[in-house]
């Protein structure tokens, strides 16, 4: 009997799925093209990471460094004009569960960013969260445009390994704090829609 | 009765799906490994983007700049030998719906590329389309090898946000025009196979 | 009759699928969130690629070159301190089916890497396998952290084209050999979970 009930539920659920998909297929045209219903998120994670930019004086504490810069700029200081356009940094930043730089790190954010707009502050990020705590073991890799001055901006999850094998989703990033050209802290709110 | 009909259709569709998948599973070996039938594209988009490379004289109009170069080269001009091997550029290029540089932009193509072959012109691209028009709001991020001299080359869609949340697919890129080392225009024909 | 049998098999398989998914949905909480059962791999591939790093003396044979470096370092030699932190290289490396540098290449590994940790050797990789042999035509793009000193490390497959259209999965990378700062060979064991 239990099995039979399951069977009925299955059929109803399946009918709903197929019918709704079909409807969307049929109405698909240039202006109405969303095909699959968005699955319920399977995981939500919030982390902070902390970037201390090398500025010529903080070699000991810096967690990132410029490795590329446009003509006429140098690798010690962020380019003074054009909103750092063309400055590229490599980083290995601690990840914490709260906004305290001194909290025990649960992993490292490793990757690169570069400033890519002349007329405003905007960047492009490619990086990986390497998590190695009791709660999470694995990596999540992100990539995409980061319009810094926008309060909340979405960046794509492009890959994952370990606990996050083939995860898909987005990260909503916000600048939680910054201190001139020396420090910034990003809050990364990760929503995954496919978890294995 | 309507429900019953739906149920039948569902069963037939489902049988087809499972049977065809099963067959492919069973015949899966080293030489016959395509597992899932390719879904029908859910979206096709064509855009152009325009890259004006800084060459020491066009600071005002340039939309990209060298930020890295190999030993012996400089950041003002593309490396003269080895097909620009090792030159890395950051860009913020206007996206248009047609091949006219002066058409109203519908977004920005932001990212980086580098020349990565000594014996021919070839590049590697990582970039994001940031679309912000009445038709499209969101981002699509791409990555992959770009063998420039091939007429049509495919680059992977690796992520998406907003209207393009978790989109999957490819972009077929072709060089629509170029002027020496100062300007190129790419036509990007995007085919998405998963849309939400 | 055959059809009816198929139908029964379908129902059983489907019930199993939905019931197991449902159970996982229901029990999903902070500590038990794996939602989908991991599909069986659809493809396993093993390749080797060979990186010959430019060191000022091997311009003829080098397959990679530094294009970025931190303040105070140069582009001829890997940075002597801080475990090459901040050194960024672009590469176009031959791919072989075995660990012999002189075997006929089946494609090229093209992309970039940078060293991103001060206190140990660790890198971040973004690259594409461009395969063009009788067995494989297409590209696979990878991205993620590469903790070099770990024997086996997983990197995400982030995209694919051609034979590998929209492939998903991971690559388990191991350093098969290295010679100082001039040569390394990586073994890349690719497991794909979605093939079209």
SS summary, helix count of chain A: 1
Oligomer: homotrimer
How many distinct beta strands of chain A? 9
User: How many domains of chain A, as an integer?
Assistant: 1
How large, in whole angstroms, is the Cα Rg of chain A? 21 Å
Which percent range describes the beta-strand content of chain A?
Answer: 35-45%
- Biggest sheet descriptor of chain A: 8 strands, antiparallel, barrel
Order of helices and strands of chain A: HEEEEEEEEE
* Secondary structure: helix percent of chain A: 10-25%
The CATH class of chain A:
Mainly Beta
Mean pLDDT of chain A: 86
InterPro entries (chains A, B, C): Allene_oxi_cyc_Dirigent, Dirigent
Protein name (chains A, B, C): Dirigent protein
Subcellular location (chains A, B, C): Secreted, Extracellular space, Apoplast
Subunit structure (chains A, B, C): Homodimer.
Task: Name some characteristics of this structure.
1 helix, homotrimer, 13% helix, 8-stranded antiparallel barrel, 196 residues, mainly beta, globular, AOC barrel-like
């Amino acid at each position: 009997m239990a099995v039979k009930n399951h069977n009925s539920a299955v059929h109803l659920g399946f009918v709903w799925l197929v019918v709704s998909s079909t409807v969307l297929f049929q109405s698909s045209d240039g202006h109405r093209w969303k095909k699959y219903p968005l699955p319920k998120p399977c995981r939500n994670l919030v982390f902070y990471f902390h970037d201390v930019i090398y500025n010529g004086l903080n070699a000991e504490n810096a967690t990132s460094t410029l490795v590329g810069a446009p003509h006429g700029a140098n690798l010690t200081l962020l380019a003074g004009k054009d909103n750092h356009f063309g400055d590229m940094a490599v980083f290995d930043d601690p990840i914490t569960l709260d906004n305290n730089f001194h909290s025990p790190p649960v992993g490292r954010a490793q990757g690169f960013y570069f400033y890519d707009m002349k007329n405003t502050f905007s960047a492009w990020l490619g990086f990986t969260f390497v998590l190695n705590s009791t709660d999470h073991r694995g990596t999540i890799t992100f990539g995409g445009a980061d319009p810094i001055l926008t309060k909340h901006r979405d960046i794509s999850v492009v890959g994952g390994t370990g606990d996050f094998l083939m995860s898909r989703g987005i990260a909503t990033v916000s600048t939680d704090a910054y201190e001139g050209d020396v420090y910034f802290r990003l809050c990364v709110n990760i929503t995954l829609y496919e978890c294995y």
